[in-house]
Description:
Layout: E1 5-8, E2 15-23, H1 27-33, E3 35-37, E4 47-55, E5 58-68, E6 79-86, H2 88-100, E7 104-105, H3 110-117, H4 123-134, H5 138-148, H6 151-175, H7 187-216, E8 218-224, H8 230-238, E9 256-262, E10 265-271, H9 281-294, E11 299-305, H10 312-321, E12 326-331, E13 347-349, H11 358-368, H12 385-406, H13 411-429, H14 435-442
Parallel strand pairs: 1-7, 8-10, 8-11, 11-12, 12-13
Antiparallel strand pairs: 1-2, 2-6, 3-4, 4-5, 5-6, 9-10
Amino acid sequence: xxxxxxAISTTLGIGAISIIRVSGNDAIKIVxxxxxxxxxxxxxxxxxxxxxxxxxNIKIDEVLVSVMRAPKTxxxxxxxxxxxHGGIAITNKVLELLLLNGCRLAEPGEFTKRAFLNGxxxxxxxxxxxxxxxxxxxxxxxxxxxxxxxxxxxLIKDLRKNIIEILANIEVNIDYPEYEDIExxxxxxxxxxxxxxxxxxxxxxxKSEDMKIIKEGIKTIIIGSPNVGKSSILNRLLNEDKAIVTxxxxxxxxxxxxxxxxxGIILNILDTAGIRKTNDVVESIGVKKSLDLIxxxxxxxxxxxxxxxxxxxxxxxxxxxxxxxHIIIVNKIDLEKNIDLSMLxxxxxxxxxxxxxxxxxxxxxxxxFNLEKINTSDFTYLSSARSISLLKKALISLDDVKKxxxxxxxxxxxxxxxxxxxxxLGEIIGETYSDELIDQLFSxxxxxx
Length: 449
């Protein structure tokens, strides 16, 4: 990180302004080479300076340049931001001049990565930056803000503090057994403390699953045989003609996507190809995709035809989804009933043609995921799959600790598993990490952030 990086931090296009960001030891020096105005190397930190960007003797643009000296910057390096007029040619020309004068083009997310590596933010706060950019609802924005301002990180730091206090007492007991004024760290005392930490983690996990739903939404697939009304249901939910609807079976051959909000929660809905045996190569690929998505979905909407008997292929699907979150939609109730409803669980009756059942479907989804009961007054919980999986991993290690205690293992052996918990919690906030993880995580950020 000894070099100086630059990138365009605003969307490249026509607009009022564009911002080109520069960060590194030579940031001020390099920008000063192409700036006509005050000497930027002599101006006070955190000032905005008027002038021109120059290419030799040619004026490129009239600009405002913000100078921010380390360490009180986002990256804890010297940072310069050039505010130009928002034109594509102007912005690219300024970027070109910076690259020609010693800057390197930043990788996606590299400014935030430097902020993390320089200790300005932890890993949860870094993820919060990206979550804030990608937030699509007010609730997801609130979650991201709590990540960015460190409130979520405090949950994990407090847990690690609890564990380090236990570990410290164990170490004192092992190293200084002759000290009579030190509380003997028995397995019972450790077990009581571990049970308390387990309770806290379980509570965080419960709330975090809700936060994950708020942030990422509910991946919902609509499946069923051809011509049962899947695409019509999608269109009705979205209130737009997203999918092509015809009387010809097999019209939908690939995945059609859309999303809606229910109580501020996003449903990412996928309309799939009709599931049936077919010799059509293209259609068969779509059918395979539909079946594969069943294992990935958070919610399955399985559509059946009210005026047709349930066939063997449909029975297989019913069996496949029985242990998953699912709602069975019996569509076309405006036609004669031939379906055996006693074979179904958790179903609703619907007629898209007569606009019957859509409101009941929305209510059933709300009830299934407790959308009205999600506590939206406190957004201070984990929301990323990475963080939640690590917290579950820490919980498994805590179970190992409790098992060791109940089997009367020596306290120093119990300590090993406790250290594993402490280390796993450290991975959540980035106290411990692998370079591969960091590179992968920040590569998902936009360029210039």
